[in-house]
Amino acid sequence: MSKGRMIGVSILLLGSSMMMVSVGIRSVLPVVHLLLWSGSLGMTIAAIGAITAGLRHEVKGK
User: Fold this and answer.
1) Secondary structure, 3-state, 1-62
2) Which of 17, 59, 6 is nearest to 40 (CA)?
3) What is the span of the domain harbouring residue 53?
4) What is the pLDDT along the chain (62 residues), one digit of tens a residue?
5) Mind telling me which residue stretches traverse the membrane in this protein (predicted)?
6) Structural domain total, the chain
7) How far apart are CA 42 and CA 18, in angstroms?
8) Contact, 33 vs 26, CB < 8 A?
9) Angle subtended at Cα 43 by Cα 58 and Cα 38, rounded to the nearest 5 degrees
10) Is 0.70 topped by the overall pTM?
């Protein structure tokens, strides 16, 4: 597994765990939930970008 894909997967896991936490917080603090959710959404998009960049790099390397 390439470095880029490893970073992407770890960001994706972190983002999804943040999403789980934010769903729990939503009932208590809607504002904090919105901030957490938008942050984890951004992380997920960044992770997908990192994974695709890593895959492209692997294909070029071969």
Assistant:
1) CCHHHHHHHHHHHHHHHHHHHHHHHHCCCHHHHHHHHHHHHHHHHHHHHHHHHHHHHHHHHC
2) 17
3) 3-61
4) 577 778 778 877 877 777 777 666 666 777 776 777 777 788 888 888 888 887 777 777 65
5) 36-55
6) 1
7) 11
8) yes
9) 155
10) no
